[in-house]
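retry 2 of 3: previous attempt timed out while embedding S-adenosyl-L-homocysteine. Reduced batch size to 1 and resubmitted. Inputs unchanged:
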Amino acid sequence: MAGQTFSKVDFSKYFQPPSLKDARRRRREAVQIINDFTIPDDMETVGREKRYLIETYGCQMNEHDTEVMAGILEKMGYQETDELKDADVILINTCAIRENAENKVFGHIGALKTLKLEKPGLIIGVCGCMAQEEVVVNKILAKYPQVDLIFGTHNIHRLPQLLKEALFGKEMVVEVWSKEGDIIENLPQSRRGHIQAWVNIMYGCDKFCTYCIVPYTRGKERSRRPEEIIQEVRELARKGYKEVTLLGQNVNAYGKDLKDLKNYGLGNLMDEMRKIGIPRIRFTTSHPKDFDDHLVEVLGKGGNLCEHIHLPVQSGSSAILKIMGRGYTRERYLDLFHKIKRAVPNASFTTDIIVGFPNETEEQFEETMSLVRECQFDGAFTFIYSPRAGTPAARMKDNVPMDVKKERLQRLNKLMDELAAQSNAKYQDQVVEVLVEGESRKNHDVLSGHTRTNKVVNFRGPKSLIGQLVKVKITDAKMWSLDGEWQAETEAMHQ
Ligand code: SAH
Ligand code: SF4
Ligand code: F3S
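retry 2 succeeded.
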C-alpha cells in the first residue's frame, strides 16, 4: 500500500480493525524483505540543536522499536533528552494489551496539553500497538488535538517522511497501514546500553489466543533470515555486548514461514548462537505449543544458552485453555515443563497467568493454583483478564464478578510470593555468576546484575565491574532479589 496520510473523513479504510476472519486469511500473503529505509535529503539535518524524548509502554518488542525510532531520529540530528520540557519531539510508544495500559496512555496524552500550549512548535506523536486500533485513533482525533502525528507498528520506517508532514503541514498526520507487515532490514537502531541487547528474530503472531490483541496490532508471523540474525549477534559480540535476548511474540514458531529452509526452527538458530562468542543468550517469549524436542535438546547443551525459560501457561485448567485457544492441555504443559527441567536441571522458570477469564469457576482457578504449586515457578506476571474489543473472548458472556477476580489474583500473588522466596532461599551461601549491569536504582553505592537464571543480585564493588561477569557469594536471599559479596579473589584466580 502506498504511504499516504489522510484527513479525518476517510481514514477508516486504512485500518484492519480486529477481525479474526480477515486476519486468518493473511497467512497466504508473501512476506517481503526490504532494504528501502531512507531519510529525505531535506530531513537529514532537521533535528540539529533539537531534542527528542520517547516514552515506552508495553513489552520488550516495544522497547526495541523505541531503539529503532531513536536511531532514526538521531540520524536526523536529534539528541535525546529525559526532560519533557526540553523536547521538540515527544513520541509515545503505546501498548494495547490490557485496558489499564491504555488508560495510562490517555491520561498522559491529556497531561501533555499544557506543554503543547506553552510550546506550539512541539511535535507530539502516538505510535505502537494502540495506534493500530481504530477506536483509539478515533478518540485521539476527537479529543486530543495536541497530538500531531499517529503512526502504526508497520509504519516505523516512515518516521522521517511522517515527521516532515507533521512539521510542515497543518493537519494531524495519521498513517496506520493495515498491511500485515514486511521485514525492513536496514533500519538504524540506537541501543540503550552497551551490555545487553535485544535482537528481533521474528515479528507478529498467528496464534490468535482468543483474549489477545497482539495478532492484530503486530501483523502476521514473519521470521527474519537466520543469516541476518547471526550477523547481527556476531556484530554485537564484536562490540563487546555480553548478553543478547532474541525477541518474538512466539519465538517457538521461528522459521515456520521460511519456506526454502526445511525444518529450520528455533533449535537450529539457538545451536548457531552457541557458536558465537557472546557469554549469554536468552530468548522470549515461548509458546508451549511450538516448543519442540530439538529445542529442548539444544538448550540442554548449555554453554552460552542461559538456564531461564519464560513459559507462559495462562491457566491450569484444560477447559479454560481450550476456550483461550492455546492449543495445549494442562497435562501437555506439565509434560513439556518436566521435559525441559530434565534437560536443563538448573533452569529457572517464569510464567504468565490470566485470572478471571470469562466464566472461570473456583475449581478451574484452583487448577491454576495447583499447577503453579507443582511447577514452583520462580516468578510470574499475573493479570486479571481484560476484554479487548474485536477479540473472540470479548464477545463471551462473563459471570465472574470483578471482586471475585481480584480476590483470586491476590491468592495467586500470595502463592507466587511464597514460591519466589523458597526458590531464592536455595541460593543462600552459593557462589553465582553475575553480569553486572549498573548501579542499583535504590542505592548508588550498590551494584546490580542478574544471574544466568535471571535472578537480581545486589552487592558492593568497584564501578569498574559494570559490564563484567563476576562471581558473587549470596549472603541474604530475599523474596525478589539476592544480596551478596563480590568474590574478588576468585576473580583474580581466573585471570
Ligand atoms: N506472546 C506472549 C505474550 C504476550 S502478552 C505469549 O503468548 O506468551 C503478555 C501477557 O499478557 C500474556 O502472556 C497474557 O498473560 C497477558 N495478556 C494478554 N492479553 C490479555 C488480556 N486480554 N487480558 C489480560 N491479560 C492478557
Ligand atoms: Fe497473544 Fe497468544 Fe500471540 Fe501470545 S501467542 S501474542 S498471547 S495471541
Ligand atoms: Fe503491548 Fe504491543 Fe507488546 S500490545 S505487550 S506493546 S506487542
